[in-house]
Each structure stands twice: as C-alpha cells, then as structure tokens.
Amino acid sequence: MLLTIESNSILARDMVYFMRANWVKGRKQSLNSLILRNWRRRRVMLQVMIVEDNAIYRYAVKSIIQWEDYGFELTTEAINGMQAFNYIQERHYDLVITDISMPEMNGLDLIQQTKQLYPEIKFIALSSFDDFQFVKEAMKLGAEDYLLKHDLETEGLINTLEQVKSKILKDREKLAKANSQASDLYLSNFSLRKLVLGESIPAHKANQALSNIQDKLGRPPYIVHLLHITAIKYEEVEADSMLSKARILFLDDISSENEFTYPIALSDQKVVVIQSFPNEKSESRVAQAAHELAGSFILSAKRLQLSVSVGMSQMSMNISDISSLYQQAGANLFQKIYDDQERIFSSQEYRGNSSEETGIHQSFMVQLSLAFKSEDMSVIEEEVTHIFDMINSSRLEMKHVKRLLFDIFALLPVIAAERKMMLNSMNHWHDVLLDSMENLEPIREIREYFLSCCRQIFGQKDVRQSYRKDIQMARDYIHAHYNEDISVADLSIVLNLSPNYLSKLFRSETGKRIVEYINQYRIEAAKKLLRETNLKVYEVGEKTGFQETSYFCKVFKEMTGITVSEYRKS
C-alpha cells in the first residue's frame, strides 16, 4: 500500500523521527506508540495534585489509570491540607484530589480556603464509608464529586475525570472569551480615559474612542457626571486594592439600567459617567433628566452599602468636549469638602469666588505667621479656626484651595526645624494632605489635622517623645488586643476620634496605615509562636487575630517573603 503524507504534517514529522531513531539506534518501536507519546508531549495537560496522608491510597490513586491518556498530569503529592495549600500558592493546579480527614488542615478547610483565593480550581473528595457527612459538606463547599477510597474503580474515576475536564475546558473558554472582550474594552476605555483626563493620545486613537462613545450613546446633547464612591461602613483599605464587589455591581447597574450612559472607572473611588439625551430637545428637560439619573446613582449605591456624591457638568452638543465637561464636573464635586453629604453638586448651585483668592491667600499667610511668632497655642488655634472658617464660607475653587492649603502646611516643618524638633508627622504631611484632597475629605477634618500638628510643635514638652499621646494610645490598644478582631471603627470609638481623622493621624505619625501596622504586629507574634510552640498553623493564626487561615498564610508570605511552613522549618 502506498501511503502519501504531506511533508509539513505532524504525522510526517513523527514518522521521520521514528525512522531516524530506529535506523540510528536500532530500536524496535511501535510507530503508533511513538506518535501517541509525542502527541502527549505536545498537548497541554491539566495539572493535578493528590492530597492524602496514607501512602497506600496515594499510590492507588496514582496507578489506577494512565493519567496522561486522559489529559491529566499528576505533578504533586501532599500529605496534609496545609502542605497542599502552600503548594497551591506557589504554582498552578487545575484539579486537586483530596482526602477529608488529615492532620494540620483537613480536606474541608483546604477546599474552603482555596476556593476563597482560587475559585477556578476543581476538587474531587476522597471518601471513606464512615465520613459521608463530611463529603456532603465538601460538595457544599464546591467539590465536583467524590471517590470511595476503599472501592476505587477505573471506569468511575475516568467518568468523573471526563466530567471535571469538560468543566475546566468550558471555564477556560469562557475566560478566554471574557478576556478578549475585556481587552478590547480596556483598550477603548484606556484611550477614552486619557481623553477624559485631558492627556495627549494619537489622533486615530482619539477618533476611535469618541466613535465608540457615539455608537453607544447616540446623538447629543451630552453631560458628564463624576461620582465619588465610599463605603457607608468605614473600613480602611490597602492602596493597591481594586474595586470591591459592591463597586463592580454598582457599575454593572449603571450600564444595564440606563440605556444612554457610558461609565468609566478612574479609580476605586471615582467613576465618570457620560450621559446623552438623543430624544430631548428642551434644555430644562435635559437638566431635569440628568438630575434624576444622578439621584438614581445615590439610591442604587445605598442598596449596595455605598455612599455616592455626584458632580455634574453643564450640557454640550459636542462629544469632543468631554475633557472640559469632566473638569466642570470635578470642580463642582470638589464642593463636597464644604458640604460633606451625599448629594448632587452642579454648576448652577456653586460658583467659586476666585476673584477674591489672591487677597485672601496673602492675608492668611501673614496672619498665620504672626500667630506662630506668638508661640501661644490659644492664639494659634483661634487664628487657624478663623482661616478655615473663611475658606469654608468663601467656597474657593479647587485649584485655589489646594494652593492655599499646601502653602499653609508647608510652614509647619519650617517652624518645627526652627524649634529644633524632630517630629514624625512633619515627614508625611504632604502625602496626608494629598490623600485628603483626593478623597474629598471635609475641610473641618483637614483643619483638625493641621491643629494637631500645631499642638505637637507648640505644646510638646519632651522632644524625645516618639508619638503624640493619642497615637501612642492607639498603638498600646493594638498591642493589647491584636489577637482580637480590631477595626479602624473600634479604635476610633476607643480614642473618641473620627475614623478618617484617626487614619490620617496614624499614618502621619507612623508612616503606616492602621491595618498594615496591625498585621505587622500580628505576624511578629505569630513568628514567636511558630518558633517556640508546636501549635498547628490554624491555631497560630487564631491566637494572633487572623480569622481565616488562608488570609494568615497570605499576609505571612507577603511580609516575610516565605511561607509559614518554610519559616517553621528554618
């Protein structure tokens, strides 16, 4: 029989490899088995870990089938849940086959904690006849299926693996499709975001971004809303955190419930929403509809435990005006520092007295310098209160307020240096003030922060004192209660300070966020327990204030650079 094979085909390459190997080395190999082995090597295998403390059962699971024939590769074995959890944090797995009853961390905890961090990983539970209740719990936690250890059957295992593989591949296909769509949307929104912020981009990208908006929104007129989003129940968040689930749901609500809107997330706290009115002719009706939409943002956010304030621009007939509309919306939203509540801020309501800015600025700087020269804290406090009251009543525009506040705060390190004082707060005032401006914190809280710095300079008796009294009290409270569930809200109640003000003050004094400081103290306590006791890892986490073992392990590795197990071994 004459067999014709295309020279560039996979089969041709396998046959050439086969003939060369047999000719040179004289091996008697099967062409079919060689092609099969090379095919296995080329295709991507799903990665599997077996977690079982009994070596006999581990061997039974490994040897019952040729895993590669079904698209799986057994890459790792673990003898308990904690070891498996550490492996999971270090490399990728598609499937974990785990026993239920194991030392250090059982299978249920492994499933639960892994699913919290890596929900895409699939689990199959290994079950004994006497722990079926635990198997049901494993299924509730997200396990795909279970296998009876004492009655492993080839056919049953293959069927289970095929079902799991089908789910994994479908998940991958969905993810690839979502990533592709998200990538296209990201590229479009990236250019649009730069346009909104007034940054320079190539003309063809600008035109494409504007075209995408018009396709979605239709005809003018257009209005821009700038939303400032915070959690109703204050919790300090890390700087690198992405939008919370509530914020994502909020953005989804905007897109799905409002046909002629285009939301763009600028940060965790700021979202731009471009709105069009293709069916409206009356300017007054456009303004009314825009206010109604802004009001719906506030109500929708409340249902998700979010607080939203909205700055609203004027109307424009040209989509290319979105940068100037954004600037208008931002200037209006900035008025929130004077009127700290959930509401809509529009151009019709607030017009800053910019013409008065130069005179006010010079007057304030002179008055404050004279107050500082008096070295009398009561005089300084009276003058500072007067200055901030004037800022509040004048409702200066954003650029003028920022300039004035930075100039006022810049006096503090100069005065401290003249008095030969080494104060922690003088090293961080710039960052704290920037944060306050970015977060639109009330002018009264900025005033309190400024006064606290003044009290340190003019009220401090012992220059060797590291921290001001209230921050030292906060540190002492953390040291005494680190093994409890401490929150910023708890600390603020103990110290009788607002959460925002306490957070600013703490960061100013220590250079750290409160959550960061708490976690560092807890990890040091955990390291001591790991060195000096035989407590299990989850027990160490519980004794040092971590409610979840997975979070404890994650924070430990972030702060020490190694896993809990590696630290204990060292």
TrEMBL record:
Check the record and name the Gene3D superfamilies matching this protein: 3.40.50.2300, Homeodomain-like (1.10.10.60)
InterPro entries per record: CheY-like_superfamily, Homeodomain-like_sf, HptR, HTH_AraC, Sig_transdc_resp-reg_receiver
Q: Does the keyword Phosphoprotein apply?
A: yes
Name a biological process GO annotation: phosphorelay signal transduction system
Tell me the SMART domains matching this sequence: HTH_ARAC, REC
Q: Output a single Gene Ontology CC term carried by this record.
A: cytoplasm
**What domain of life does the UniProt record list for this protein's source?**
Bacteria
Q: Does the keyword Cell membrane apply?
A: no
> What protein name applies here?
Response regulator
Write the lineage as a comma-separated list: Bacteria, Bacillati, Bacillota, Bacilli, Bacillales
